[in-house]
Design goal:
With 391 residues, this protein is of the alpha/beta class. Helices cover 45% and strands 15% of the residues. The protein starts with a strand and ends with a helix. Bound molecules: NADPH dihydro-nicotinamide-adenine-dinucleotide phosphate (NDP).
């Protein structure tokens, strides 16, 4: 039996992962399941799947978790340190599906043990790409991408020489507000931005899809994961979300990966890699789809893409700052403190303020350095938010 742990088990990716695991119960021993505030879900799944331990990141919820697990034999733990310790438990495969930079430390720890890390938490690669990839190499641990675009690129590269890659194109649906006129965007609410036309995902990534911060993170993720020069990586709008990514080779061939918009494709590929097993996902009927559209993204509408280009050039701590400021901007938007179109300017101001004070292009040598910079950038973004006011 394969020993598996799921970090962020109560979220959208976590639940889809558990759905696949439940379909083949004899194949897996669930080691650790982690969550946040959703104690009822965490305890239910931990008991049902006979996990060894359930962990919430919130120390104050330990007693609630203990009570929910009483009599089940499943251990309970809570707090950020407990989350990282859960990654020390021997596992063959770990799903990293915590949302935000909070996913970095547990994933980083898992790599130390040579564990295969299925990486949905794109923020890890944006905030600490070179460090994470170096840690994986040092411990001969494998990182398998779970973001659908990166899984698509990974699959298109099987058996290929990365040196023969001329370009990587990742696709973007345009999110919930793609048909809104530019002048209306400033008035968009979190509910407006949180209704994705194609994908069923967590609230934060859904809003990031509407602002294209999600695609910005993915451009940086592509650069870090595949080690491809920024000029070879582009994003195109593709409203149907059927083609997830394309890889162009030096002989002119362009390999496209297609699939229905269902995260169980990419999760299942990472779970079964290097094999392919039957997955309960809709099969594409090309004649029913009829057409596939592609067009250039409008950079005026999506300033996050322009910022991503700058970050890809600078590397080093720029990704850490970009992600941290984006998280603060998103929190502020969800809380109604700033408008939809105020998010990118806040991220840009944070990047520009910090780059005039510290060198962001230097290498990030340790996890502590990254976490410190993440903290500084979050504080600066909050300060800028307070001094520049709300909409
Ligand atoms: P969700 O918001 O649905 O779930 C997030 C998970 O992380 C939950 O288990 C949540 O616990 C937990 N969590 C929240 N905050 C913390 C914290 N500070 N420390 C530890 N755990 C925490 O997110 P998604 O599943 O949508 O996304 C997860 C990751 O996967 C993100 O990085 C996202 O960008 C990426 N991704 C998601 C896709 C999708 O389709 N959803 C597609 C591609 C990538 P609780 O809910 O109990 O509070």
């Amino acid at each position: 039996m394969r020993r598996v742990s799921i970090f962020g088990a109560t979220g959208s990716i976590g639940q889809n992962t558990l759905d696949l695991i439940r379909r083949d119960p004899g194949a897996y021993q669930v080691v650790a399941l982690t969550g946040g505030r959703n104690i009822a879900q965490l305890a239910r799944d931990a008991k049902d799947l006979r996990a060894e331990i359930a962990v919430t990141c919130h120390a104050g919820l330990l007693e609630d978790l203990r009570a929910a697990l009483a009599g089940s034999g499943v251990e309970a733990a809570a707090g950020e340190a407990a989350l990282v310790e859960a990654a020390d438990r021997q596992a063959d495969w770990i799903m990293s599906a915590i949302v935000g930079a909070a996913g970095l430390a547990p994933g980083f720890r898992a790599l130390r043990h040579g564990t295969t890390l299925a990486l949905a938490n794109k923020e890890s690669l944006v905030a600490a790409g070179p460090l994470l990839m170096a840690e994986a190499a040092r411990h001969a641990a494998r990182i398998l991408p779970v973001d659908s675009e990166h899984s698509a690129v990974f699959q298109a590269l099987v058996g290929e020489d990365i040196a023969a890659v001329e370009r990587i194109v990742i696709t973007a649906s345009g999110g919930a507000l793609r048909d809104w006129p530019l002048e209306r965007l400033a008035a968009a609410t979190p509910e407006d931005a949180g209704a994705h036309p194609n994908w069923d995902m967590g609230q934060r990534i859904t809003i990031d899809s509407a602002s294209m911060f999600n695609k910005a993170l993915e451009l940086i993720e592509t650069r870090e994961f595949f080690g491809i020069a920024p000029k070879k990586i582009t994003a195109v709008m593709h409203p149907q979300s059927i083609v997830h990514a394309l890889v162009g080779f030096r002989d002119g061939a362009l390999m496209a990966h297609m699939g229905s918009p269902d995260m169980r494709h990419a999760i299942g590929y990472a779970l079964n890699w290097p094999d392919r097993w039957h997955l309960p996902v809709e099969r594409i009927d090309l004649t029913r789809i009829g057409r596939l559209d592609f067009h250039e993204p409008d950079l005026q509408r999506f300033p996050a893409l322009r910022l991503a280009r700058e970050v890809m050039q600078i590397r080093g701590g720029a990704g850490t700052v970009f992600n941290a400021a984006k998280e603060i901007a998103l929190d502020a938007f969800i809380a109604g403190r700033i408008g939809f179109t105020d998010m990118a300017p806040l991220v840009e101001r944070t990047l520009s303020a910090l780059s005039s004070e510290i060198r962001l292009d230097g290498a990030m040598h340790s996890l502590e350095t990254v976490l410190d910079l993440n903290h500084v950038a979050r504080q600066r973004a909050v300060a800028l938010l307070e001094t520049t006011g709300t909409t």
